[in-house]
Design a protein that fits this description.
By secondary structure, this protein is an alpha+beta fold. Among the domains are: 3-111, Beta Polymerase, domain 2; 247-305 and 316-440, Orthogonal Bundle (Cytochrome-c3 Hydrogenase, chain B). Helix content is 38%, strand content 17%. The protein contains 15 helices and 15 strands. The strands form five sheets. It has a five-stranded mixed beta sheet with strand order 1-2-5-4-3. It has a three-stranded antiparallel beta sheet with strand order 8-9-10. Strand 4 and strand 5 form a beta hairpin. The two termini are 32 Å apart.
Length: 515
């Protein structure tokens, strides 16, 4: 879809990816969204900013869209006393929860939105307090507040009853509540409630120097630390006009693919375990543990935290280390191919996987499902191929996709993505160019930048507004925002005992949806 079809003025941002930014009025806010939807584009994220000290506009609501030509960042200034904006959820259902979160954090609301329930505010702060406004310090306490009842959607009829799961779970995971409406063991409806541990991450960014805040970005969702740190640094580098050295770009890709493989190995084992195949869990966890130990040996951290810094990377690898990477990838590939054959030949596993938790291509497209889960439902979007930066532009990257959209399809895509990442890591290790690790180009200046990275779970997006070392607004978006609603649909018609299996096949982030 051509950018000219949007009918608005757009300014290209300095970035390795094609990213454009523009301002609109209320009518164009809806017109742009409608044009994007009609042209097959996707909503990437929606957020708000408090600009009462920086401009005449009091607040701004922003949305980013993925088009064939790149990413478009649209802003709607809310002037005067107006704190509402046109609702986008009819065009992009994924916008509903983002709009609710923005209302909780800033007090700006989507007019005429059908769902106006709080999302992040569980009663920890008053309805008249907004944690992301300029006057909020992040240190407020509200001792008289109490947890309020949440109006879950009720399903009624003969034999219908509810099962409440969470927010406290048996495993060591973050809290999330799942309310099942069932007849017998058949699920009629699932409704999620997240946001139980609102951490104030977005406000914390405003208290950190821009040059060190990449460390906080890398902790938005710990299993995606490389993707978030890279997206933040990409945004800061764009705002400051910093050029990324070629060796640093290749090393960032190497770290990103190491992160992808680690997560797929762990989840493939957990999926076997959720289908009562403990052998799969033990074998894949052995592979993952060896993988993480080499991370620690070569890069200083099992999960690769703080390896990516503004302007480059904080760690290098020598020829001997590259040889270790290649040897490990070859060994892991042999085992992964063998385990894939075992999974596919195991009748019990396939009985549990095939047809379970299906998200059709049509539904995935409507909900804007992203990343690995989207590619298992017929979507082909992958930033590594669609907007390839170095080294992906030189490595003939192959996108993995499937159309069945069930647990089996998500398992297949995980296997294929893991094997492709192993190939990429070997190619990067063998072709790593010489050069500096960090750019020597650096300018303190006011500006905006955006980062957009294909993390293992899907598209990670960061929008950044800076002035010298001061962060005015940093919005981090995890792909789980799009995929949690898809999980609600995927479980419908399945039996309750299949929910853990379906849930793990997505493996979404609680933390990334709770900023």
């Amino acid at each position: 879809m051509p950018l000219s079809d949007l009918g608005i003025a757009l300014t290209p941002l300095t970035a390795p990816l094609p990213i454009f930014r523009g301002n609109v009025g209320p009518a164009d806010w809806i017109a742009v969204a409608a044009t994007v939807a009609a042209g097959g584009g996707r909503l990437v994220s929606l957020w708000g900013s408090d600009r009462r000290q920086e401009s005449a506009a009091a607040f701004v609501v922003a949305a980013s869209y993925a088009l064939q030509e790149g990413l478009v960042w649209i802003e709607l200034p809310l002037t005067g006393a107006d704190s509402t904006y046109p609702d986008l959820s009819d065009l992009f259902p994924a916008a509903a929860r983002m709009q609710r979160a923005t209302a909780d954090l800033l007090g700006i609301r989507a007019a005429d939105a059908e769902d106006r329930r709080p999302w992040l505010n569980h009663g920890a702060w008053p309805r008249v307090h907004f944690p992301l406004r300029r006057e909020a310090t992040g240190n407020e306490t509200f001792p008289d507040q109490s947890v309020t009842d949440y109006p879950f959607v009720r399903v009624e009829g003969d034999g219908v009853h509810e099962i409440a799961v969470g927010p406290v779970h048996a495993g060591i995971i973050e809290p999330g509540h799942f309310r099942f409406s069932v007849v017998g063991e058949k699920v009629l409806r699932l409704e999620e409630r997240l946001g139980y541990t609102h951490k104030g991450t977005a406000k914390r960014f405003e208290r950190l120097p821009a040059s060190t805040a990449h460390r906080l970005a890398g902790r938005v969702s710990g299993d995606s630390t490389v993707a978030f740190a890279w997206a933040y640094c990409m945004a800061l580098e764009a705002a400051r006009g910093m050029a990324l050295p070629l060796r640093a770009a290749w090393l960032r890709a190497l770290l990103l693919e190491r992160e992808r493989v680690a997560n797929h190995l762990g989840d493939l084992g957990a999926l076997g375990n959720d289908a009562a195949f403990a052998f799969g869990l033990s074998q894949f966890m052995l592979l993952k543990e060896d993988w993480l130990r080499l991370n620690r040996s070569l890069f200083g951290h099992r999960y690769l935290m703080d390896c990516i810094v503004p302007g480059g990377v904080a760690t290098d690898i020598d020829a001997a280390g590259c040889d270790q990477l290649v040897a490990q990838c070859e060994a892991v590939e042999r085992d992964v191919r063998l385990l894939r054959n075992i999974y596919e030949d195991h009748a019990g596993l396939q009985d549990r996987f095939i047809g379970t938790g299906r998200v059709s291509p049509q539904l995935a497209n409507q909900l804007g499902v992203t990343g690995m889960a989207g590619r298992a439902s017929g979507m082909t979007a992958d930033l590594r191929a669609d907007f390839a930066v170095a080294p992906y532009s030189e490595l003939e990257f192959k996108v993995s996709s499937h159309r069945n959209g069930d647990v089996a399809a998500r398992v297949i895509v995980r296997f294929e993505e893991a094997l492709e990442s192993l190939r990429l890591i070997r190619a990067i290790a063998r072709g790593l160019p010489e050069g500096p690790l960090v750019s020597d180009q650096f300018a303190h200046r006011a500006g905006v930048g955006a980062g957009w990275i294909e993390g293992w779970r899907g598209e990670v997006f960061v929008a950044l507004e800076v002035e010298d070392e001061r962060i005015l607004r940093c919005h981090c978006h995890d792909p789980s925002w799009h995929n949690w609603p898809a999980l609600e649909h995927a479980v419908i018609g399945n039996i309750v005992p299949d929910f853990p299996l379906i849930n793990k096949s997505f493996n979404l982030s609680y933390s990334g949806s709770d900023l």
